[in-house]
Amino acid sequence: MANSKLYKGSLNTIILKLLDEGGRMYGYEITQKVKEITKGELKITEGALYPALHKLEAEGLLVVEVAKVDNRLRKYYKLTEQGVKEKTNRLVELEDFIRNMEQLVNPKWTIN
């Protein structure tokens, strides 16, 4: 299940949530945090992560800060004010989706 298509639709929400909690983060740091939180169950590839980050930036939900670290330039991603609001909206939508899926796959039958 490490790279399940089910996660793919949630990648932007995962990124927004991590940035909300972690402040600013760089790409590799995001992949490692996801791996740590999921105990290795979810591995986000660079091929999935960077297009998602660029899309969120284009939507005005992230800003990029460049810093020099060990003689290399590193891009840090940080939520904008709009990004914080969107993160809240997407988490509500995701929680509703999870609740509905739970009802569908594990219904609590009642006898009338």
Overview of the molecule:
The protein has a three-stranded antiparallel beta sheet. The model has no long low-confidence stretch (mean pLDDT 88). It has a single domain (5-105), classed as Arc Repressor Mutant, subunit A. The chain is 58% helix and 16% strand. It is an alpha+beta fold and 112 residues long.
Secondary structure layout plus pairing:
Layout: H1 5-8, H2 11-22, E1 25-26, H3 27-37, H4 46-58, E2 62-69, E3 72-79, H5 81-105
Antiparallel strand pairs: 1-3, 2-3
**CATH homologous superfamily (4th level) name:** Winged helix-like DNA-binding domain superfamily/Winged helix DNA-binding domain
Name the structural class: alpha+beta
CATH architecture: Orthogonal Bundle
Helix content: 55-70%
> Biggest sheet, in brief?
3 strands, antiparallel
CATH fold naming = Arc Repressor Mutant, subunit A
The radius of gyration over CA amounts to 17 Å
InterPro entries: Metal_resp_DNA-bind_regulator, Tscrpt_reg_PadR_N, WH-like_DNA-bd_sf, WH_DNA-bd_sf
GO molecular function: DNA binding
Protein name: DNA-binding transcriptional regulator, PadR family
Pfam family, one: PadR
Briefly summarize what is shown.
This protein has 112 residues and is an alpha+beta fold. The chain has a single domain, classed as Orthogonal Bundle (Arc Repressor Mutant, subunit A). The chain is 58% helix and 16% strand.
Key descriptive features of the protein:
alpha+beta, DNA binding, Arc Repressor Mutant, subunit A, elongated, Metal_resp_DNA-bind_regulator, 16% strand, DNA-binding transcriptional regulator, PadR family, 5 helices, WH_DNA-bd_sf, 112 residues
